[in-house]
Amino acid sequence: MGISTDSVASHRKFADKYGLAVTLLSDSDKEVVQRYRVKNLIGFANRKSFLIDPQGILRKIYDSVSPANHAGEVLEDLKALQEAG
Known about the structure:
The strands form two sheets. The chain has a two-stranded parallel sheet. It starts with a strand and ends with a helix. Strand 3 and strand 4 (58-62) form a beta hairpin. The chain is globular and about 40 Å long. Helix content is 36%, strand content 18%. The longest helix is centred in the last third of the chain and has 15 residues, at 70-84. It is an alpha+beta fold. The chain has helices spanning 8-18, 31-35, 70-84, and strands spanning 2-4, 24-26, 49-52, 58-62.
C-alpha cells in the first residue's frame, strides 16, 4: 500500500490516471508521517518505504526510493527473507 499526505480525491485521481493496482491511503492529518518519522526539514514527508512482515515486524527501511527500480528491489528483499525462513 502507499501512504501520503495527499487527499483521498487526489489519490483517486492519481490511481485512475496511472492505472494503479496498489491501495493508496491518505494521511492528511500527518499521523503516520509523525509515527514513522518521515517528515523532512521543511515539513513535507520524504519518500520512504518500509518492509513489514505479516507479524508486524519491521524488516527493512528504504530511505531512498527510486520509483523506476523500487518494486524490483522490494521483490528481491522479500525473496531473501523467504529463503532465510
